[in-house]
Amino acid sequence: MAVKKACEMFPKSLIEDVHKWGCMKQTGVSLRYMMEFGSKPTERNLLISAQFLHKELPIRVARRAIELQTLPYGLSEKPAVLKVRDWYLESFRDMRAFPEIKDSGDEKEFTQMIKAVKVRHNNVVPMMALGVNQLKKGMNSGNLDEIHQFLDRFYLSRIGIRMLIGQHVELHNPNPPLHTVGYIHTKMSPMEVARNASEDARSICFREYGSAPEINIYGDPSFTFPYVPTHLHLMMYELVKNSLRAVQERFVDSDRVAPPIRIIVADGIEDVTIKVSDEGGGIARSGLPKIFTYLYSTARNPLEEEVDLGTADVPVTMAGYGYGLPISRLYARYFGGDLQIISMEGYGTDAYLHLSRLGDSQEPLP
Asked: Where in this chain does the entry annotate a coiled-coil region (predicted)?
């Protein structure tokens, strides 16, 4: 299949518009602002929110579309990356084609349109992984620094775009669950989210290995703070899954009972910190710098099989193509937190997930 340049598939005027909007300044918002603004989803507030997104989203989408066309090492020409570029250009076109939002009728139509944009981009992560994997096969992995920096910017921006769209769409829910403002839970229990994520990870472990180590969780079960539960669930699931796999594989042929994984939740003044500790043998010091790079994984790569780009059937698992840890760290950083991994080779690994309790840090805007 011949590679089609964007200018062949999209009108020149659209490409010029993308470059114009890509130069405009992005506007970040904080968790606290989203929470306070969304706590009263009146018609007027929804209108203001839609008008903000009508201007903000095309800027963010345009920046990524431009970057997707100027990647090093020929990555921009990979079929999977071209597919992602087309999704971004189509979304930019849809948002720019939408007229000025003047009343609640316009606002409802706009909400349906951005909802469709979010669905269009559902498979961006595995599709980009496929493109980078196609590139990686033909080159030395030592040269991938520029690609890693691009992917960090790209995925961080994607988290922000999906958060803004999802938050706005969810504010239309006529029966929101108790203590929720859009995607944000104002009284989220980190213990409860950790427990749910641990159960999900253990069920995957059971499915793959036929057994799973125990998980012990320590902390104050009554402690709550405002955060996005889906983000925390994703991060905790990833960390626990890694620990379960390490312990399971280390003790698979041992007479000893596999030691439990310990999760400790600490509520500080600035941060809520969650530590996930395992005795899975740890990571060699030489391997530690690699764990936050994309495409580093010790598991089998699910993208080795050829995937039909015409369908959306890309493996949705995060295990195996080395995206779990770097993307988890981006989710932590998106609201002012961080993720650190400390390892003792020959013993085990401690992961420290820091979540900002104050909620007033601005979105990082790559």
From this structure: none
| Cα separation of the two ends of the chain | 33
How many domains does the chain contain in total?
Answer: 2
Residue 103: Cβ-neighbour burial (10 angstroms; 0-12, 13-18, 19+) = exposed
Find out whether 52 and 85 touch, Cβ atoms under 8 Å. Answer: no
- The DSSP line for 56-104 is HHHHHHHHHHHHHTS-GGGGGGSHHHHHHHHHHHHHHHHHHHSPP--SH
Per the domain annotation, does 252 fall within a domain?
A: yes
CATH number for the domain that contains residue 41: 1.20.140.20
354, β-bridge pairs: 273, 338
- In terms of residue numbers, what domain contains 27? 12-177
CA distances, 39 to each of 51, 176, 230, 360 (Å)? 18, 11, 19, 16
- Considering the entire predicted model, what is its pTM? 0.90
Domain boundary among 152, 177, 202: 177
Percent of the chain with pLDDT over 70: 89
CA gap 67, 185 in Å, rounded = 34
Instruction: Say what angle helices 324-334 and 145-170 make with each other, to 10 degrees.
Output: 50
Question: Are residues 207 and 150 both part of a single domain?
Answer: no
**What is the C-alpha separation between 35 and 12, in angstroms, rounded?**
40
Closest alpha carbon to 262 in 282, 279, 238: 279
Instruction: Using pLDDT thresholds of 50, 70 and 90, give the confidence band for residue 198.
Output: very high
Q: What whole-number distance in Å separates Cα of residue 139 and Cα of residue 52?
A: 43
d(Cα 95, Cα 149) in Å, to the nearest integer?
Answer: 27
Residues 91, 211: one domain? no
Q: State how far the Cα of 88 lies from the Cα of 9, in Å rounded to an integer.
A: 13
